[in-house]
Amino acid sequence: MSPVDEREVRAWVDGVLNRWAAVGLAVGVVRDGSLQFHGHGVADIASRTPVTEDTVFRIASITKTFTAIAVMQLWERGLLDLDAPADRYLRAYPLVPASLGFRPATVRHLLTHTAGIGELAHLSGLLQPPEFGESVPVGRPVPSLAEFYRRGVRIQAEPGTRFTYTNHGPATLGQIVEDVTGQPFHDYLREHVFDPLGMSHTDLLRSGRVRSQLATGYALRSGGARAVSDYEMVTAPAGSIYSTPRDMARYLAALLGGGTNEHGSVLKAATLATMFEPQYQPDPRIPGIGLGFFRGDVGGHPVVEHQGILSGFNSQIFVAPDDGVGVMAFTNGASRAMFWLPAEVSGLLHHLLGVPVEGIRADVPQRPETWGDICGWYSFPGPLTDARARGMTGAGVEVFVRGGGLRLRGLSPVPALYRGFRLHPDDEKDPYVFRVDVSEYGMGTIRVVFSRESGTGTTAVHLDVLPMSAYRRPAVANPRLWMPGALAAAGTAAALRRRRATRHRRAS
Known about the structure:
By secondary structure, the chain is an alpha+beta fold. It folds into three domains: about 5-355, Beta-lactamase; about 370-475, Lipocalin (Beta Barrel); about 480-508. It contains 14 helices and 24 strands. The strands form six sheets. Strands 19-18-17-16-24-23-22-21-20 form a nine-stranded antiparallel β-sheet. Strands 3-2-1-15-14-13-12 form a seven-stranded antiparallel β-sheet, with helices on both faces. Strand 23 (about 455-465) and strand 24 (about 470-475) form a beta hairpin. Helix 2 packs parallel to helix 5. The longest helix has 25 residues, at about 485-505. The protein is globular, with a radius of gyration of 23 Å. The termini are far apart.
């Protein structure tokens, strides 16, 4: 791999900012333990404070990777077994299975989002997006996890059988670290992770280490950039870390260095390698997830990554351990950055590795003889309260033929999802592998893989954007058959409510 060209990276940053507006953007490339940094915009509009290497951003769900490292430190010390029931170590609250026949949820299940835990801890959170009731305004007391989970965390599905991305599994891992060590989790991270790596301006809490340089989070609305409400996360081990590009460069250097950077060590190299290996794959053709890190493939180069999404802040890290290079980006105010930031940072990594970005192939023929096997309705398991999956797909996905080709759409009230996307063949040797073009939304392309069983036919569809899987259902149960009527009824009810409101205003 050729040396990092600062002018090329700067040109890439300028291109991103031409395509997507951001109040502040910090981009870093880490190689050989050093940081090449590019900052744009401001950390705070009122004071016009520029974004620098020492600006503190909220890195949101990238916190989950730090929590995983803390757990693996306890594993190295022999204080816990990854395949033992998590309840063996959890003292603050229980994990409560929905069925007595479920196998126990293990620590490994929690690390891979396969413990069977749903999206919401409390149904009231469904009415409190985007953090689903897991936050409190700054200045108010933050309840402990024992108080927040009350009678325990519910295991809704057989552990190990499906992936559901949630904050409650990683939050419970943080509680396990606290219960095993007897040390508050924020203190544990400082003593055993942040300080050994030289991350002196990083913390789980809004402490003096981070407060003075903290960026303001913004939302871009019709009237311009507006500061978002400031709050603290109850599920802190899943999404509360504050950090700077300089400190995060030290973290990426440790991930590239087998758990060690120039300041110190947090894990053995073999342990970190295990964390990067596939621990859950819904299909062998999907990279899946390791222990705390999502896995990917860039032209044959294995990578691990994680995204962070919090109101006013978005973040992304990618690490190519075999190539010794990592990239990261943080923003404190950008529209739809949860979609475009991962794709753009991935594009930079592709460039650094000399690999073209995956696009729609024009050299793979269609295979219409397989279409009858593929067409149908597929639903994602889990309750409707699993808001992230349901927000993207609604009642599932449908594959059908239109315009001489296969299309995949979400059975969702979101028009763009319901219109669907063309399924383009992506593997000349495998007619059940496709790619969809979502570049209109900043996401580039997404690989779509269908599973088959001998004598049964197609049974599931998998997306590599997350190891999410939807399973084939009978055609007669397809919600599209009743959705138009339901939507029409909802529209009629809304119209009646408007008429009643109008008559009420006139009468008064």
